[in-house]
Amino acid sequence: MNSVLNSPLRIGSVLACLLLFGACSRRQSSAMTEQNPRALARVDDTAIDEARFRHAWERQEPSTDNAARRGEILESLIRQAALAEAAREAGLDRDPLVVDQVERLLVGRLRDARLTPLLAEVSVSDEEVRQYYETHREDSFHQPGQVRAAVLWFDTRGQEPLVARYRPRMENIRTTIADGTSTLPPASGFGSHALQNSEHRASRSKGGDLGWLQEGRPMDEFRAVVATLAAGLASPGDLSPVTARPEGLFLVRLIERRDPRFLELSAVSGNIRKQLLRERREEVEDRWTSEMLQSLGIVRYPERLAALADLPVRERGTPVFNPPALSGSPTPR
Known about the structure:
alpha+beta
């Protein structure tokens, strides 16, 4: 059995035949087959009819129509049907792999035929989009304030001798920028000062620029300190005091600020429509599936399920915690 299952050709033959005949009786009588006016060939008691031949013909799209080409396609169907019959005789139509694949194909065809047309009828009007926007404007379409800030940081580990060691360097940079001695534009952050005066590896090559920090959004302790210091700065280019915290020694410069605002309907209408369509289609699919299940006699045996033993489980590796990389290689002292 394993050698048969490992052959892609034979699996394809089995699946194709089972898909065509799975809903019907596994075998037809010879009399019924011979009475079929559309039968083009027969393999034991299985008929190869006109519909099946036309499907194979359209799939191959031959460039010519003649007796030889028709014969070739019919012979390929005969070989496929014969191999599929051999697979059934070997019991492979009951193999879990085959059953699973056939059922998936059948479900896919059923969805295409019955569910897809229902989903295509679902629509959302402009008025429904507007009503959704008005209803959820306060909670879903409010854009919190944001600040973009640059930082110089030393990992002083809460030790006062280290604070005293690095504070003069930061104070000197702050004075140089504040009095105009250094003409760094706000967009440059701290410029080249960050390379030799910051231990924050991720930002020091970018002038200390941390990017946008959004009010109310969870962030690590490092960024939370920067956001707090930046919140007190009004205009691009403003500098915070040199501030010692348990998290280290900080100097923050405001690059840009975005005030809180509401997103306009025109900016979010497309996403609203997609969301409403998705939700309504899910409702249609759930209702359709429920109706399908209710039409069938389903019996469950929970005690048998509970009695199953030795089910293999995949071992999951221990999650690895990767804290934000705050400090890089020591800077020159």
